[in-house]
């Protein structure tokens, strides 16, 4: 493996000190290997940075990792790009290989949060086989359970100011003037994915593929079902209880 070309002398002292303090703070923490499962809009993206910081874990979002491996031209990234260029899905073995590689980074020393994988039982089995070779197992699967109707209201009410990324919600966080950004007065848009019709098809495929994955881990007794429709801070409290 090519040695990293980071020169420590080039890194600002403050960054080095912060990283050193972070590692000292993290040293006594127990290892944790977590999987987050939930439909789009269930709040996984909000909770994962909190979990990551509190437990010193690395966040492995498979989509981001694939893109990173492709742009870094790692051997697995090159293979993944070949599949993508042909319009094929990247094989489960490749994705598991990329997770395997990522786990060896210092930031993953205390464990990881897996997000967006496994999506099928076959992927869960492959992941388990790879982890077993590393002497690691999944400790908890956090199931962000939420009613489809609640999600529809959450997602189809979202409006975005494209230039800044500011987001609003017709019910929960409306702009001062409907359809208009509070700061610039420019028009808000709705993302193509944030319509009820698109959400419905995404939820159908989520339930079809992912319910069996939850059942697979339930048999191992490691699934914690969260009430993801609750306010953000209540869900954070639930997560803390489950992981304490």
Automatic annotation (TrEMBL):
What SUPFAM superfamilies does this protein map onto?
A: P-loop containing nucleoside triphosphate hydrolases
Keyword Nucleotide-binding listed: yes
Q: Where is the Adenylate kinase active site lid domain?
A: 158-193
Q: Which reaction does it catalyse?
A: AMP + ATP = 2 ADP
Asked if Iron is a keyword of the record, the answer is no
Tell me where on the tree of life, at the top rank, the source sits.
Eukaryota
UniProt KW keywords: Kinase, Nucleotide-binding, Transferase
EC identifiers of the protein: 2.7.4.3
An annotated Gene Ontology molecular function:
kinase activity
Q: Cross-referenced PROSITE patterns, in alphabetical order?
A: ADENYLATE_KINASE
Q: How does it assemble?
A: Monomer.
Which protein family is it in? Belongs to the adenylate kinase family.
Q: Which NCBIfam families match?
A: adk, PRK00279.1-2, PRK00279.1-3
HAMAP family attached here? Adenylate_kinase_Adk (MF_00235)
Task: Specify the protein name.
Answer: adenylate kinase
